[in-house]
Amino acid sequence: MRRLHKKGYRLLSYPGIALIFGLAFLFSVRSAGAGREVTFRVGPDGDYAAISAALEAIPDDASSVRIRIAPSLLPAERDAELSVPDAPSLERVTFEADLEVGAARRVRVLSVWRIFANGVALTIGPGLEFPNASVFGGSLAADRSLATVLTTELTIAGVVSNVYGGGLALAGGVSIVRGASSVKLAAGGEVIWQLCGGGAAEGTNAYATIGDTDVSVSGRAAYAFAGGAARGGGRSEVVGVSRIALEAEGASSVALFGGGLAEGDASAYRTEDSVVSVAGTAAWVFGGDYAFGRGAAKLSGMASVTILPGASVAELYAGSFATDEGSVAEIASAKIAGSERAERYRPGSVSSKGGSAEDPEIGG
To answer: Which of 28, 68, 99, 359 could potentially form a cystine with 150 if both were Cys, beta carbons 3.0 to 4.6 Å apart?
Structure first.
C-alpha cells in the first residue's frame, strides 16, 4: 500500500473521479518482501504506554506486528485516532488482549475513536474491546485531500462500534480503495452499530469509492451492509459487486442490506450489483440500499439474495428501504432464492414516513 495525498485540488465529477480511480493504481502498490515479525506490549509495564507510540515505533523492515494491550492500559488522549504507518514491508498488524491466566478476561479501551488500517491487513483479536471506535480498512481523506490504497482486509474477533472496509472521506476529501475490501466478523466478535463493506463519505463534497466488497459475518452486528455509507451531503459507492454472507453462527439484530446507506440531505449512495447469502439469524434482510433523512440511494444493477436452509429471517425484502420525507431509494432488479424460508417475504421495497422506494423488477 502507498497513499497519495494532494491538497487544493478542484472537486471533480464522477467521470473525473473515475480517471483518478484508474491512475491511483500506480500509486498504491505495496512492496512485497520477507520482513521480520515484531511484538510490542502496551501498558504501564510494557514497551510503550500508549498504542499510538507502539504504532509509531514499527520498524521499516517489519512485515507482521503484534501489539499486545494490557488491561491496565491508562487512557491516553493521543490514542483517540490510531493510524497504521506506511512502512514499506508491513503486511499485517494485530491488536491483541494481553491477558494472563486467571486474570482479566477482556481488555476494554475507551479512549480510541478511530482506527485507520491504511490498506494494511488489520486484526482486532478476541477479548479486546474498542466500544467507541470506528475501524476503517482504508485511509482518511480530509481538507480537500486525496487518499488511495490498493486493497483492504479487516478481521474483527473482538468488539468495536463501527466497521468500514474502505476509507473515510470528510468534507472535500476523496478516499479510494482501488481493488476489493475483505471484512470478516469472526465468531465471538461484535460490531455494536454498523458493519459496512465499503467506505464512508461525510460532509459536502466528500467522496468514498471502492472496487468490490466481500463481507463475512460470523459474529454479531446490529446493522450489516455489503456496501458503504454517505452522510451529511457526501457521496459513496461500490463500483463493482457488493457481497455479504451471514454465516450460520452469525446474527444481524436490526437489518442486513446488500447495498449501502445514504443518510442526510444531499447524501448519495450507489451500488452496482449486490450478492446476499443468509445462513444465520437476521431480523430484516434487504437486497438493496437504505436511505433516510432525505438521503438518496440507487442500486443500478441486480440484487441477488439467497436464504439458505437453517437460516432464521423475520422479514425479507427483495428491494430497498427509504424512510423520512425526501428520502429516495431506487433499485433496478432483484433475484431471490429461498424466500419460503423467511417468515415474511415481499418481492419489492418498503418505505415509511414519507420516503419513496421503488420496487425492483424480479428476475428468475
So the answer is: 28
- What is this structure's pTM? 0.91
SS3 letters for 182-235? EEEECCCCEEEEEEECCCEEECCCCEEEEEEEEEEECCEEEEEECCCEEECCCE
DSSP string, 110-144: -S--EEE-TTSEEEE-TTEEEEEEEEESS-EE-TT
For residue 102, what pLDDT is reported?
55
Contacts for 23 with CB less than 8 Å, ≥ 6 apart: none
Name 30's Cβ contacts closer than 8 Å, sequence gap at least 6.
1, 2, 88, 91, 119, 150
Q: Which three cell numbers stand for residue 325?
A: 420525507
How far CA 217 is from CA of 7, 194, 247, 268, in Å, comes to 37, 12, 6, 26
- State the Cα angle at 93 between 49 and 82, rounded to 5°: 50
Instruction: Report the 10 Å Cβ neighbour count for 71.
Output: 17
∠ at Cα 124 (276, 274), nearest 5°?
15
Q: What is the pLDDT of residues 265-301, one digit of tens each?
A: 999 999 999 999 999 999 999 999 999 999 999 999 9
| CA distances from residue 78 to 8, 84, 113 in whole angstroms, order as listed | 27, 14, 11
Tell me which of 54-58, 84-88, 162-166, 248-252 is least confident: 84-88
The answer to whether 164 and 143 have CB atoms below 8 angstroms apart is no
